[in-house]
Amino acid sequence: MRSRFQSDRRLTVRMSVTLFLLGLLYVAFVAALIALLRSWVLVVVIAAAMLGAQYWFSDRIALYAMHGRVVEREEAPQLHGVVDRLCAVADMPKPLVAVSEMDMPNAFATGRNPDHAVVCVTRGLMRRLEPDEMEGVLAHELSHVAHKDVAVITVASFLGVIAGLLVRFAFYSQLFGGRGRRDQNTVAVLAAVMVVSAAVYALSFLLIRALSRYRELAADRAAAHLTGRPSALASALTKLTGDIARIPSEDLRTAQAFNAFYFTPAFGAEPGLSRLFSTHPTLEQRLEQLATITAELGAAARPGKAG
């Protein structure tokens, strides 16, 4: 079922291309391991099982990692009210609503599809935002669910874990399983495995980061058009980015592993080449896009007023 969130064909194309390239990359990776090693079947089966578990239980895994729990309407009536209103406007199924006890102001959405999704906000976020700002953040997160990019980024991110598992198994099987044949051939095989795995990890890392940055811009656009108040989303972005910068870095590092899922990153995007490694576009890029949408909505409204 299609929601009323503004569709984004470019996001769909980017998700499809990213998954295709990652799939191609890992097929080549496994093929290389098969050519180099003997014992590979078990680890491929284990890796596939782990990927399936990540896909089916990603919402529970993320909630557990972020100390979140599903809350009923009686526990968080205002939060449920905003989600109810947005889902009605967007004509989409209502996800589970969860709250994390973390003070870091943030939000995330996860789940394999709109019928099995959860939107979670932290206590820190609820304390800091005004109602219209909260609505903008939740609309942003719901758009991730509607666009189905949550499931794509979950699967794509986990492929890197699979690559690491395959490499570790390959390394130790050669190192400890090759008694009496630790010769130059074994060393060459290990070196080849490590080179191939490093290349696969680097390419997949860059592909995932590029998709992650674009999907955040797409979610900002969709949320701004759904609510009609891009300025509220811009205000939330500015406020949360400033507040996160004041949180002790040791507290942020525990959350950094889930940066790709957050509304705003635990550590902001750095300028220069390091932006290639960021999960989010810069605050300036996001605010500039929202300012453009504000101008577009204003221009569209003026002729109606004149009439």
UniProtKB/TrEMBL annotation:
Pfam family, one: Peptidase_M48
Gene3D superfamilies: Metalloproteases ('zincins'), catalytic domain
Catalytic EC class: hydrolase
Cofactors that this protein relies on: Zn(2+)
Record membrane topology: Multi-pass membrane protein
Binding locations of Zn(2+): H140, H144, E216
Localization, UniProt: Cell membrane
Gene Ontology MF term list: metallopeptidase activity
Entry's transmembrane regions: 12-34, 40-57, 150-175, 187-208
Keyword match Lipid metabolism: no
Catalytic activity, EC: 3.4.24.-
Highest rank taxon of the organism: Bacteria
Residue span, Peptidase M48 domain: 75-292
Cofactor note: Binds 1 zinc ion per subunit.
Keywords of the record: Cell membrane, Hydrolase, Membrane, Metal-binding, Metalloprotease, Protease, Transmembrane, Transmembrane helix, Zinc
Active site (catalytic residues): E141
Family recorded in the similarity comment: Belongs to the peptidase M48B family.
HAMAP family for this protein: Pept_M48_protease_HtpX (MF_00188)
PANTHER family noted in UniProt: PROTEASE HTPX (PTHR43221), PROTEASE HTPX HOMOLOG (PTHR43221:SF2)
Name of the protein described by the UniProt record: Protease HtpX homolog
Organism listed in the record: Streptomyces macrolidinus
